[in-house]
Design goal:
Signal peptide: 1-28
Number of strands: 3
GO molecular function: serine-type endopeptidase inhibitor activity
Main location: secreted
Domain Kazal-like: 38-92
CATH topology of the domain at 54-89: Wheat Germ Agglutinin (Isolectin 2), domain 1
Pfam families: Kazal_1
CATH class of the domain at 54-89: Alpha Beta
Radius of gyration: 21 Å
Length: 92
């Protein structure tokens, strides 16, 4: 039985490099198509709140809500106290 467990362990170790290659490929495809795996923290310090510019540059928040622009997302963060990140530029 000990030999069989050792062979299974070696087989599992052989799969690790394949999984790492797959993971790296998936990450590069996401980056290639403009999708990153990490959320971005909005730069709320650049806005003088309350009051935001009326420019329409939608962002998708980690609360799965679409905000007209980053500033309105920052207003929501200040009002509710939740840590909302930007998933991507554009609507959700």
């Amino acid at each position: 039985m000990a030999g069989r467990g050792g062979r299974m362990g070696l087989a599992a170790l052989r799969l690790v490099p394949l999984l790492l290659v797959w993971w790296d490929s998936a990450a590069s495809l996401n980056t290639q198509f403009g999708e990153t795996s990490e959320y971005r923290t909005p730069n709320c310090y650049q806005y003088k709140l309350p009051g935001c510019p009326r420019d329409f540059s939608p962002v998708c928040g980690s609360d799965m809500s679409t905000y007209p622009n980053e500033c309105t997302l920052c207003m929501k963060i200040r009002e509710d106290g939740h840590d909302i990140k930007i998933i991507r530029s554009g609507p959700c």
